[in-house]
Amino acid sequence: MAETPQGQETLSNLLHESRRFPPPEDLAAAANVKADAYAEADDDRLAFWAKQAERLKWEQPWDRVLDWDPPFAKWFTGGTINAAVNCLDRHVDAGRGDKVAYHWEGEPGDTRTITYAELKDMVCQASNALLELGVEKGDRVAVYMPMIPETVVAMLACARIGAVHMVVFGGFSVDALGTRLDDSAAKVVVTADGGYRRGKPSSLKPAVDEAVKDRPAVEHVLVVRRTGQDVDWTDGRDVWWHDIVDRQSTEHTAEGHDAEHPLYIMYTSGTTAKPKGILHTTGGYLTQVSYTHWAVFDLKPESDVFWTAADIGWVTGHSYIVYGPLSNGATSVMYEGTPDTPHKGRFWEIVEKYGVTIAYMAPTAIRTFMKWGEDIPAGFDLSSLRVLGSVGEPINPEAYTWYRKNIGGDRTPVVDTWWQTETGAIMVSPLPGVHSGKPGAAMRPLPGIAADVVDEKGESVPPGGGGFIVVREPWPSMLRGIWGDPERYKDTYWSRFEGLYFPGDGAKRDEDGDIWLLGRVDDVMLVSGHNISTTEVESALVAHPKVAESAVVGATDPTTGQAIVAFVILRGEAGDGGEDLVKELREHVAASLGPIAKPRQIMVVPELPKTRSGKIMRRLLRDVAENRELGDVSTLTDAGAMDKIRTAFGAGS
Ligand code: 6R9
């Protein structure tokens, strides 16, 4: 926005939301974290984080909490720790080996219940197998898997022996896998023959074969048999998991790794440039993931059943399916498939079956459920739920209230958690026992997190102001850099504002001082000199009873600079649209936000282009709206979606 002629403008502040949902009294009274945590952390931030680090088992205590050589941070230096020991051995040694770590549910309905003791044995065996395959401490291991327990086992086996896991979402293309293998120089790829999605086996091994063909750096491909489909086999290189892992000893003596030893690399796809390998290390990452999982969800490990309905190939899966829940000794649900297979009530059936108490998912899923209608969840007993979470995009106020009412029985707090691959763990979120929830707002930086909303010059904005979210001080689970590219790390995150971490999101602070996230700064539209956030126009559209989901982009326009083009998916009962509805929707946006926000065009489409985490890829929609060739589509979950949208756009314009 600095580049716009109206450089002084802030993001607009168009939406007004006055609904408030105070925490249930019993939840507030028994909450893990109360309001005093903020003052405690403000008083001595490093002492606060040191206290949280003591939740974990350290092989050797740290000498210093933080070494800060901006923008490079080291946390808990001198300490040694093993992430797998913290996730497994610690609980087994304390007599909790029989506790269920995962209730795993396959898409076809097959299930596995895995205790902490069993998971530890599996991880020790896999550790021994990786060692036999020649994997050494510091080597990178790619994991290209469906959502099955072996995915977690492979990650923890790497962590145990000090290898660095690099999980690639199983829905990514050969190209996306290939560039990640090159950049990380992975030595082994762990994969499966395939997994189940939408009622049928989808394959993974052929993509690995194709990607590994010209990449001699990959010495072995370790293959889990999941679906039983035929696979091509390269002798010497390919190894069946059941051949090598099952015959290993369940004993493996783990050593403590340096607190700053790399734990994993996770690639984020930039909008145009080559993907960035975000590096996380061990001690600080585990500290913040463990603390936030316990604090933000008010986790009671003895009684809760926690479910992050997301893919492990997204950072949300790393932090809140694997490291957070396991480090806290929680019981989690893990589900392999899609929410509509074999029926649209699948998620709610799972909640009922396992008595899920805390559920965490993306707004895109919630909007899909809205589209399918409230009768579907109403058919299941969801009374076990006590906290709901949202992550991945700003949650539209309408989606928030729908979620709270139809899934949470108008009883559960909803925590809207803002964070990124780069931040490693949750950064901004209400606490369920402290705050009155505000639909659409992530509200407060967590205790110990120095997030702020600033203007163009990097100065804090007062209540009612808008600008950019930044982080002023290092935090334990922050990225330690971009794999192999320290300059790009500085340029991308630390050059926009002197001394501040810039995540790239727009934000505003309301009159109560609460933070609202407004989407990626790259997506902000400039219409006749006014900055308008895509999020706000989308939320206005979703508030219309006939709209389930929408994506808004700014397209070049000869008169207004940019004009608003909206793509909408209608709710099940709304029919196919038609000119009258489009007119009604344009008027509806103008009435809710003001005439300046009235879309120039509204296209009714059957689908929207999404990433693995359900984020709308607005740059592709911009390409459509401006009649350009599509940019990189290798990280799209469903490549067919764009053809349908182009067709709809062509027919409507
Ligand atoms: C965890 C995750 C990061 C980007 C982030 C922001 C968006 C995530 C959000 C949210 C508004 C929330 N985002 N959570 N925006 N409210 N609660 O999603 O990581 O895939 O790296 O994406 O997602 O734009 O910058 P990642």
Molecular structure report:
The protein is of the alpha/beta class and 653 residues long. The protein is built from 20 helices and 30 strands. The strands form 8 sheets. It has an 8-stranded mixed β-sheet with strand order 12-11-8-6-7-14-15-23, with helices on both faces. A 7-stranded mixed β-sheet has the order 5-4-17-16-18-19-20, with helices on both faces. Strand 16, helix 11 and strand 17 form a beta-alpha-beta unit. Helix 7 (174-184) packs across helix 8. It is globular, with a radius of gyration of 24 Å. The two termini are 29 Å apart. The model is unreliable at 1-10 (pLDDT under 50). Ligand 6R9 binds next to helix 11, strand 20 and strand 25. The modification N6-acetyllysine is found at residue 615. Residues 36-87 form the Acetyl-coenzyme A synthetase N-terminal domain. It comes from Nocardiopsis endophytica. Residues 94-483 form the AMP-dependent synthetase/ligase domain. ATP binds at residues 392-394, 416-421, 505, 520.
